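Example S7 (C-alpha cells).
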C-alpha cells in the first residue's frame, strides 16, 4: 500500500528543508574572521592602544558568552568564537606593533642615518615604471624590494635582528634576483610611510653586494619562467609579453601599451597570480583525472600536488602563497562538490593568514582576493541557478556570473584605490572568459616542458596564441571606449559610498515594482549620459585650426590642413591610447606628417597610437637624434606604418591648402648631445611657426633659456597669435623671448598633478596680467583654436576663438597627496617680468557646445 498523502507531503517538506540546509552557506566562522580582521586593522592603523581597547571588549564578550544563563542561547556560540578570535588577534597585533616601534632601526630611520644591511629578499624586485623626460616608455627607473632584515649596522652600532624593510634602488644589479636570496646593501634610512609593520625604508646606493645563492626550488622556478618567455617569442610582440604574465605572473616582457590597455579595461588581475590561476590549473588536473575515472581522493591529492608545483613555478612569495590558499578554498570546496563547506574554509583561511602575517590586513590584494572568493562561493551559485531557471545552459551560466560577481564584490575596493569606476570592466571580463583558461593552461604547460626542448614549449605557446590574441584585442577595444571610466571619490569614503550604492541597488532590485522603476531610471541615465560622454556636444568645433590634445604630461598638437580628415600632428604625447583617442574625437583618418619636436618619451612615446589605422605621409625628426633608443623605436614604428622617416632643420617650409609650416629652430644644433642631459635635448627641439586660418601659431617643443636666446638673437619671425608654451609652462622661459612672441593666447599642454610642478604659477600669473589668455589641458581638456567662417579674412588672428572640450584627464595616482585638476600645483620660485601686451583684446573663449 502507498503512504497517505499527508505522510508523503510531510516527507517531501522534510526533504526540502534538508536540501535547503545542505545548500545554505555555513556562516558560523564568518564573525570570528571579521572580528579578527577588524582588530588587526585597528592595531596597524590606529596603534596598539586601539587594539588593546578592542581586545578588552573582546574579553568582555568572552565573559558574557560563557555565563551560565547565556551559555545555551543561540547567539552565545557566535559571540564566543568572534570574541576569542578578536582577543587573540588583538594580543598578536599589539605585540607586533610594539616590536616595530621599539626596533633599533626605527630611531635611525627618523634621523636619516646611513646603514649597511644584510637582508633576505621576501619577494621579487618590483619595477617602478617612470615617464620622465628621458625614460623609456614602460621602463623601470627604480625597483621596490620587500626584504627581511638579518643584520644591521648603523653608525657605531650593529644588531643581528629581524623585521621587515623596504629597499628602494636603481634597477642595476637587481634583475633576476629571486625571493630567498641574501644580499648586502648600503644606503640612507627613511621612516616607513605605510603602516604595514615595515620597520624602515632604505634608499640603496649602488648595486647589491655579497649576493647569496637561491634555493633549488627558486632556481628551478626561474629556469622554467625563462623557458616560457623564450617559447613565447614565436608569438607577436604584444602576445609574447602577455602570455608569461597570464600564466605565471611574469610581466617583465609585457609592453607598455598592453599594460595600459589592461589597466583601463579592468583586466590587470589577469597578469597577477591569483586564486583564479591556481583554480584553473588545479581544476584542469582534477578534470583530467576524473575523465580517466580516478579515485576522488587520489584526484584531490594529485590536484593538490599540481597546486604546490604551480606555487613553486610562480615563486612562493607572500602574494602567491595567499593566492594558493584562496585558490585551494575554491577548488576543494566547489570543484569537489562541497559548497556548504566553502564559507567556513574561506573564513578559516582568512583567520589563519591574518594570525600568521598580520600585515595582510592592510594589503589591498588580500582584500580583493577575499572579496572575490567570497563572491564566488556566496553570490555566484545563486546567480547561476537563476540563469539556469531562465533557460541558460549550465556551463554558460557559470561563465557569465563568475566575472560579474567578482567584479561587483571588488568594485568598492578598486574605486577606493583608483578613484575611478570602470563602466567596461565587467563586460571585458565576460568577453575574456573563454580565453583565460586555455591560455593559462597552455602557458603553464609550455613552462613545464621547456626543459625537454624549445620546440615542445614553442608548440604549446603557439597553440595558446589565438586565446592570447583575443585577450589583447578585448583589452585594446575596451580601453579605447570613450568615457569608459568614471571619476569617483577615492580612499575609504569612496569605497564606502560605492558599497552603499551597490547594497541599495541590490535591495531595490529584490522588489518587482522597484526593479522596474530602477531599470527605467538606469536606462534614462544611460540615454542621457552615455551619448554625451561618447560624443560631447559641439566637438569638434566647426572651423578648428589647431587643437592641443589632453594627453597628460606631454605634448600633442593637431593642425588642420584644409583637407577633411587629414592633419599634421606635432608630437604624440607619452601614451598610445590618449593621442589615438584625441585623433578619433577629431575624426582624423590620415596624417600628412608627424613632426616630433624631440625624442623624449613625453613627446614621442605615443607615436604608435597616432599611426594606428591611419594613412601617414611621413614622420619627421629634428637634427638632435638622442636618446638613441627612442630614435630606433620611432624608426621601427614608422617603418611598420609604411611611413618614411624624414629630417627637418631650420629654414625649411612645408605647405598644405590651409596650413604653412616654417621651421625656425633649433638655430645651432650640437653635433652630439649627451642623451642624459635633458636640458640639452630640450634645447634641440624643433621650433615651428604655423600659418593657419585662425592666425599664426608658434610651436616650441621644450626649448629652454639657451635655445630661446638663440631664437631671439637669430632674428627669426617669432611673433605669433598663439604660443604653445615651451616645456609645459615650466619656469625656464625668458621675458625677452615671450616679449618677442607677444602672443594673445598661450596653450599649456600639461598633465594634472604632475610631479614636476608644471606649469609655473608665477609664469601663469604674469601672462594673465599681461592680457594673455591662458588655456591649460589639465584644467580644460582638449583646447581648440578656431576661426569662425567669414571672420578675419584680412587678419586671421583678429577673430580667433578658443573652445574647451572639458572632461580633462584625472591626476595619476602616486604616493603622497594627489592634486585634483582644479587645484594648482604647489608654488615653486616665481618668475616675474614685464610682458608687453598687444593692443588687441584677449581672445574670446567659449565652452564646448556653445
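Recovered sequence:
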Amino acid at each position: 500500500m502507498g503512504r497517505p498523502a499527508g505522510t508523503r507531503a510531510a516527507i517531501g517538506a522534510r526533504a526540502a528543508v534538508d536540501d535547503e540546509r545542505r545548500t545554505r552557506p555555513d556562516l558560523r566562522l564568518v564573525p570570528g574572521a571579521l572580528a579578527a580582521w577588524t582588530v588587526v586593522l585597528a592595531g596597524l592603523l590606529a596603534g596598539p592602544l586601539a587594539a588593546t581597547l578592542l581586545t578588552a571588549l573582546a574579553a568582555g564578550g568572552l565573559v558574557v558568552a560563557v555565563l551560565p544563563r547565556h551559555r545555551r542561547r543561540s547567539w552565545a556560540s557566535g559571540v564566543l568564537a568572534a570574541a576569542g578570535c578578536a582577543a587573540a588577534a588583538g594580543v598578536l597585533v599589539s605585540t607586533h606593533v610594539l616590536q616595530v616601534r621599539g626596533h633599533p632601526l626605527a630611531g635611525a630611520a627618523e634621523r636619516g642615518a646611513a646603514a649597511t644591511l644584510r637582508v633576505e629578499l621576501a619577494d621579487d624586485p618590483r619595477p617602478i615604471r617612470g615617464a620622465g623626460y628621458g625614460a623609456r616608455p614602460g621602463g623601470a627607473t627604480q625597483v621596490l624590494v620587500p626584504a627581511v632584515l638579518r643584520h644591521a649596522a648603523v653608525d657605531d652600532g650593529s644588531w643581528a635582528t629581524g623585521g621587515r624593510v623596504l629597499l628602494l634602488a636603481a634597477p642595476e644589479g637587481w634583475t633576476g634576483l629571486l625571493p630567498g636570496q641574501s644580499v648586502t646593501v648600503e644606503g640612507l634610512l627613511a621612516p616607513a610611510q605605510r603602516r604595514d609593520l615595515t620597520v624602515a625604508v632604505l634608499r640603496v646606493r649602488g648595486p647589491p653586494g655579497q649576493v647569496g645563492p637561491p634555493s633549488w626550488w627558486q632556481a628551478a622556478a626561474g629556469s622554467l619562467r625563462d623557458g616560457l618567455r623564450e617559447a613565447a617569442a614565436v608569438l607577436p610582440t604584444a602576445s609574447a609579453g602577455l602570455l608569461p604574465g597570464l600564466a605565471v605572473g611574469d610581466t617583465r616582457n609585457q609592453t607598455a601599451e598592453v599594460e595600459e590597455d589592461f589597466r583601463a579595461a579592468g583586466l590587470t588581475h589577469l597578469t597577477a597570480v591569483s586564486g583564479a590561476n591556481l583554480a584553473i590549473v588545479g581544476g584542469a588536473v582534477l578534470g583530467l583525472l576524473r575523465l580517466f575515472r580516478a579515485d576522488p581522493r587520489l584526484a584531490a591529492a594529485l590536484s593538490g600536488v599540481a597546486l604546490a608545483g604551480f606555487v613553486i613555478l610562480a615563486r612562493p612569495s607572500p602574494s602567491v602563497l595567499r593566492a594558493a590558499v584562496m585558490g585551494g578554498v575554491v577548488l576543494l570546496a566547489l570543484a569537489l562538490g562541497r559548497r556548504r563547506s566553502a564559507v567556513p574554509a574561506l573564513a578559516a583561511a582568512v583567520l589563519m593568514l591574518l594570525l600568521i602575517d598580520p600585515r595582510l590586513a592592510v594589503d589591498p590584494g588580500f582584500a580583493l582576493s577575499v572579496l572575490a572568493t567570497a563572491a564566488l562561493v556566496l553570490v555566484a551559485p545563486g546567480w547561476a541557478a537563476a540563469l539556469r531557471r531562465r533557460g541558460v545552459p549550465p556551463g554558460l551560466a557559470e561563465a557569465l556570473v563568475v566575472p560579474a560577481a567578482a567584479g561587483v564584490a571588488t568594485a568598492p575596493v578598486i574605486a577606493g584605490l583608483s578613484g575611478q569606476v570602470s563602466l567596461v570592466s565587467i563586460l571585458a571580463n565576460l568577453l575574456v572568459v573563454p580565453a583565460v583558461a586555455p591560455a593559462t593552461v597552455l602557458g603553464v604547460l609550455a613552462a613545464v616542458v621547456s626543459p625537454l626542448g624549445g620546440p615542445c614549449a614553442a608548440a604549446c605557446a603557439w597553440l595558446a596564441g589565438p586565446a592570447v590574441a583575443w585577450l589583447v584585442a578585448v583589452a585594446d577595444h575596451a580601453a579605447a571606449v570613450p568615457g569608459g571610466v568614471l571619476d569617483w571619490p577615492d580612499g575609504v569614503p569612496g569605497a564606502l559610498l560605492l558599497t552603499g550604492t551597490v547594497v541599495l541597488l541590490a535591495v531595490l532590485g529584490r522588489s518587482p515594482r522597484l526593479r522596474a522603476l530602477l531599470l527605467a531610471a538606469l536606462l534614462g541615465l544611460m540615454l542621457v549620459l552615455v551619448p554625451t560622454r561618447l560624443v560631447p556636444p559641439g566637438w569638434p568645433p566647426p572651423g578648428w585650426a589647431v587643437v592641443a590634445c589632453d594627453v597628460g604630461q606631454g605634448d600633442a598638437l593637431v593642425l588642420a590642413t584644409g583637407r577633411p580628415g587629414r592633419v599634421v600632428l606635432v608630437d604624440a604625447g607619452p601614451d598610445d591610447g590618449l593621442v589615438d583617442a584625441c585623433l578619433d574625437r577629431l575624426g582624423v583618418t590620415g596624417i600628412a606628417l608627424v613632426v616630433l619636436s624631440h625624442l623624449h618619451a613625453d613627446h614621442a612615446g605615443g607615436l604608435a597610437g597616432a599611426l594606428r589605422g591611419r594613412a601617414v605621409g611621413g614622420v619627421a625628426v629634428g637634427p638632435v637624434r638622442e636618446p638613441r633608443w627612442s630614435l630606433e623605436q620611432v624608426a621601427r614604428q614608422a617603418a611598420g606604418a609604411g611611413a618614411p622617416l624624414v629630417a627637418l632643420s631650420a629654414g625649411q617650409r612645408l605647405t598644405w591648402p590651409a596650413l604653412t609650416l616654417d621651421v625656425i629652430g633649433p638655430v645651432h644644433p650640437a653635433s652630439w648631445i649627451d642623451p642624459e642631459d635633458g636640458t640639452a635635448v630640450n634645447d634641440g627641439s624643433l621650433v615651428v611657426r604655423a600659418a593657419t586660418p585662425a592666425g599664426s601659431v608658434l610651436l616650441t617643443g621644450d626649448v629652454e633659456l639657451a635655445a630661446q636666446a638663440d631664437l631671439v638673437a637669430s632674428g627669426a619671425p617669432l611673433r605669433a597669435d598663439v604660443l604653445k608654451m615651451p616645456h609645459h609652462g615650466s619656469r625656464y622661459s625668458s621675458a625677452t623671448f615671450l616679449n618677442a612672441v607677444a602672443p594673445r593666447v598661450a596653450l599649456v599642454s600639461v598633465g594634472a598633478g604632475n610631479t614636476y610642478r608644471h606649469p609655473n604659477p608665477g609664469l601663469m600669473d604674469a601672462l594673465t596680467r599681461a592680457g594673455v589668455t591662458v588655456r591649460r589641458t589639465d584644467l580644460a581638456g582638449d583646447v581648440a583654436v578656431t576661426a569662425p567662417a567669414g571672420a578675419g579674412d584680412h587678419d586671421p588672428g583678429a577673430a580667433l576663438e578658443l573652445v574647451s572640450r572639458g572632461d580633462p584627464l584625472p591626476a595619476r595616482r602616486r604616493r603622497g597627496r594627489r592634486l585634483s585638476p582644479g587645484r594648482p600645483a604647489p608654488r615653486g620660485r616665481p618668475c616675474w617680468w614685464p610682458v608687453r601686451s598687444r593692443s588687441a583684446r584677449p581672445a574670446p573663449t567659449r565652452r564646448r557646445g556653445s
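Notes on this example. The mean pLDDT is 78.
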